[in-house]
# Entry
Amino acid sequence: MTLDYLNKDRTNRPADPNKFDIYRRQFGDAAATNFSALVNAKIPADQTRPVSIFWRVNYAIPTLCLVAGADSNLNVIEIYPNGFDPRITSHIFDPSISAGMQQNSANGMSTSTTLLV
# Structure
């Protein structure tokens, strides 16, 4: 079993007024908060057929700043004359689980069947 937690703040570019005359354009890397859990187990169902389970869940909250300046073709100058620079925040929940059964034969060969959801 593994648990992971990451909290990373956004970074700011240096406040160089010659380069960043609009404050919101100085954002660098996005911020992110992430939590992950992982379980990987093999359980003996009987002597020749172990069952394996792999479960993972990931929950992330990234925050970023999209830059579409006044001279960008992504901007509508009539509405945003100085550019459109939204801050985007999302919540991402990403679970998965797989389970399988392995069949061991007398000659040393094994086969497995897995279901992924």
About this structure: The chain has one domain: 2-41+55-96. The mean pLDDT is 79. The CA atoms of residues 45 and 51 lie 6 Å apart. The longest strand covers residues 50-65.
